[in-house]
Amino acid sequence: MHMMARPYSIDSCGGFLLGIVIIILVLWAIVADDVRNRVSFWTRSSSKFPDFSHYENFTHTLSNEQFPTYDKDRRIIVIGDLHGMNASLTTLLNRISYDARRDILIHLGDLATKAPVEDSLAVLSFMESNKILGVRGNNDQEVLEWRAWMDWIVSQPGGRKWLRHVDKHWSDYEPASEKGDISAFNPWRPLMKKPDWGDKVPKGWRPLGDHYQVARAMSRSQYEYLRSLPLVLYAPAGHVFFVHAGLLAADPRRRSTHHKQPLSHWPSIQQRKHDIPAIRKAQELALLSEIPQNQDPWTVQNIRSVLKNGKLTPSSHKGTPFSDLWNEIMGRCSGFHDSNAQFDSVTRLTGYQESQLVHLPCYPSTVVYGHAAGRGLDVKRWSVGLDTGCSYGRRLTALVLGARSFSSGVPDDHSLDFLPEETNRLDAGPFFTGAGEYHEFDSLSDATNHRIKFDHAGEARIFSVKCH
Ligand SMILES: *[C@@H]1O[C@H](CO)[C@@H](O)[C@H](O)[C@H]1NC(C)=O
Ligand SMILES: *[C@@H]1O[C@H](CO)[C@@H](O)[C@H](O)[C@H]1NC(C)=O
Mutation test of ligand 2: which of 53, 56, 60 has the most ligand atoms closer than 8 Å to its C-beta? Predict the structure, then answer.
């Protein structure tokens, strides 16, 4: 018994020590791993970022079901920049008796930011859960890119922990970030001497701001929704383009009759020579694919004006509004005449002097956009600017299209008339007098319900509500 007890106690003591050693080793491993993660998280060279922009869905072409131009019981409702104005969205939809089962809703982007995060999320949630069609605005783009960055950070060793740390110490750093000084932001100061957002954030990005906060707070499905939004929605049935900021009808660095301009010649489609809709569609698609600037995401998400030298600018004070150039070109479209009935590319209008060619062999199409709150409601013959500055306490505006909006609309349909009674009596009659003429619509900033010309011989309505 005695002899047995000793080894037993040695064993027990050894086991105890072993246990302690194991615990120490385990603890050390955890700490070391943590330190290593933190070090590697901050020291790994990350000059190469993955692509956060997700521009893969550039253009989406709307089917006839998504853009019903013949059905007099269905409307297409287009809404300008929302910026989290959840209550105004509800007010506007109620005012035009939006019926989700029949009406097609299309938004023009900038759903979030410039509002409390929960309001941005409410608008995102509405759009996402109802699978609303729309385009991605420049602010949505920033939100999306921050979220893609967060996903990437989380995939890095130690990244998930670091991001949680940032969340926890958020309030300590908000004042600094509001001043734009993020160098002060260092949630791991005790461990690391010089941690730096600079290595981990692409140049020019500002962490912790409005976009960052919405990106951090939004659900995965809201993120997926933003990612699914194209930059351009194209509706061949109505000859309409929907973009957030703008689109060009011609490359402004060239004459509008230059053979590289898609509207200077008939598209070279070999078959279906007498199928005007097919030719129009080919030419409209060429606007997107053959004007180099229209292939640049920056253009469709940010442009407001075109400078004299042909460069594009987000400024609304310099240069010519892009919509003026659009209307200038579209106003010269004179259709495809029989005299031009040879479709071979040799009959393209190359070599013509500008003066000889006032008219262009095309049919006009319409661009509907937001983004330019500074210009307010901006209705021209072939363009409609719908950002009326709701987030600045001005108005939220909708363009309402029905079967009567499109050239071939059924004459006796009343698709635009099933709007609330009191909103029907305002205004009547066309506001322009002939093809190519249009009025600037600045005086309509207080408008609540107006008719406008749309497409070739159609009419549309504009509704707006006051934002608070
Ligand atoms: C957004 O609007 C909807 C509909 O009016 C409402 O149910 C919801 O509570 C609003 N959300 C927020 C965050 O205000
Ligand atoms: C592209 O955009 C359309 C229209 O919003 C959407 O239905 C579609 O799912 C998107 N595609 C992808 C790959 O996200």
Answer: 60
Give the pLDDT of residue 4.
46
- Write down the pLDDT at residue 123: 98
Nearest atom of ligand 2 to the alpha carbon of 57? 1
Whether 90 lines ligand 1, by a CB cut-off of 6 Å, is yes
Q: Which domains does the chain have, with CATH numbers?
A: 61-136+370-466 (3.60.21), 139-223 (no CATH), 245-367 (no CATH)
Question: Tokens representing 32?
Answer: 């070391």
pLDDT band for 28, please (50, 70, 90 cuts): confident
Residues 333-362: pLDDT tens digits? 988 764 444 433 333 444 444 444 578 989
| DSSP H or E run through 242 | strand 240-243
Q: Identify the top-confidence range among 26-30, 184-188, 381-385.
A: 381-385
Residue of 83, 85, 86, 396 best suited for mutating to test ligand 1, as the one with most atoms within 8 Å of CB: 86
Cα–Cα distance measured from residue 393 to residue 269, given in angstroms and rounded to the nearest whole number: 49
Rounded to the nearest 5 degrees, what angle is found at the Cα of 158, between the Cα atoms of 153 and 163?
55
∠ CA 55-59-63, rounded to 5°: 140
What is the model's pTM? Answer: 0.80
SS3 128: helix
For residue 401, give Cα distances in angstroms to 62, 105, 422. Answer: 15, 10, 19
Residue 167 CA, chain-centre distance (Å), reads: 28
Name the closest ligand to CA 59: 2
Is residue 420 very low, low, confident or very high in pLDDT (cuts 50, 70, 90)?
very low
Strands 383-385 and 366-369: parallel
26: amino acid identity, one letter: V
Instruction: Pick the ligand that lies closest to the CA of residue 54.
Output: 2
Cβ atoms 79, 108 nearer than 8 A = yes
Q: Helices 210-217 and 138-155, interaxial angle, to 10°? A: 60
- Could you give the CA distance from residue 396 to residue 95 in angstroms, rounded to a whole number? 12
